[in-house]
Amino acid sequence: MNLKPLEHLAIIMDGNGRWASLKRKPRVYGHVKGTKVAKQIITDCSRLGIKHLTLYAFSTENWFRPQAEVSFLMNILRRYLKRETSNLIKENIKFSIIGDMNRLPKDVVETVKESMLATSHCTGLHLVFAISYGSQQEITQAAKNLGKALLDGNLKLDEVTPEVFNRFLSSYPTPAPDLIIRTSGEKRLSNFLLWQAAYSEFYFTDKLWPDFTKDDLMQALDSFSLRKRRFGGVSENLENSLELNSGSNEVATH
Ligand code: FPP
């Protein structure tokens, strides 16, 4: 099948804990396997020519998990960046993050900054980790910054449009995700890219993240290729049929 070009793929990597429980192992065992899978999927996306890949690695709500699990996840992140940055450079992958850096341990912030700087010249895949990320928090912060720009006279009320608002989000200038994959059978966004997902396509799979493979990725991309995206307007086919049936004033579908 010819894959439809996809600029931005976002993934909610869910099910590490359940995967480990099924194997009667501690939850962190699932995070270790989940990290290996993430590494592989990052390489696959890079080689497939996807331009942006956002991985939901740690949500604002994840801070409420037991302290030992939070520390373990921070360790995973630290070690991933320390060990993988040279590979990211080799693969021409540029790394960045979205989320509240202020809540991260200081040395993790330093490591994140080092990896961002070391890969800033890379022109291949743009890899984004959503860490300590919550979309409602991101939107609230954007509203505050926009309000400040209004108060400071750097922006006029009449100039505020969705496009202008978008520029205040931490994800800017990364384009909105074309496709969002969520593993583990859950069918919700869980505070991930709420604004940006306005016209994203969704792909849900029952596979738990540690079992997710390149084949699963290809199935998701195949499914995306079959979607007819209308962005609230008319699809190409519908547009043609409307032209043929001129006089009809049927309008957009969603
Ligand atoms: C969801 O599974 C997963 C997370 C909260 C963490 C995701 C993190 C990784 C896959 C590792 C980080 C990756 C890199 C590359 C640094 P869950 O624990 O919510 O599983 P459950 O829903 O079954 O409990």
End-to-end gap: 26 Å
Strand content: 5-15%
Task: Could you tell me the CATH topology label.
Answer: Undecaprenyl pyrophosphate synthetase
The number of distinct helices, counting runs of at least 4 residues, comes to 8
Largest sheet: 6 strands, parallel
General description of the model:
With 254 residues, the protein is an alpha/beta fold. The chain has one domain: Decaprenyl diphosphate synthase-like (Undecaprenyl pyrophosphate synthetase), CATH 3.40.1180.10. 43% of the residues lie in helices and 13% in strands. It is built from 8 helices and 6 strands. It has a 6-stranded parallel beta sheet, with helices on both faces. Helix 4 (106-118) links the parallel strand 3 (94-98) and strand 4 (126-133). Helix 2 packs parallel to helix 3 (67-90) and helix 3 (67-90) runs parallel beside helix 4 (106-118). The longest helix has 24 residues, at 67-90. The protein starts with 7 loop residues before the first strand and ends in a 10-residue tail after the last helix. It binds farnesyl diphosphate. Residues 13-18, 31, 34-35, 38, 57, 62, 76-77, 80, 184, 209 line the site of farnesyl diphosphate.
List the helices and strands and how they pair.
Blueprint: E1 8-12, H1 16-22, H2 27-48, E2 52-59, H3 67-90, E3 94-98, H4 106-118, E4 126-133, H5 135-151, H6 162-166, E5 179-182, E6 201-204, H7 214-226, H8 236-244
Parallel strand pairs: 1-2, 1-5, 2-4, 3-4, 5-6
Helix pairs in contact: 1-2, 2-3, 3-4
The structure holds farnesyl diphosphate.
Farnesyl diphosphate is lined by residues 13-18, 31, 34-35, 38, 57, 62, 76-77, 80, 184, 209.
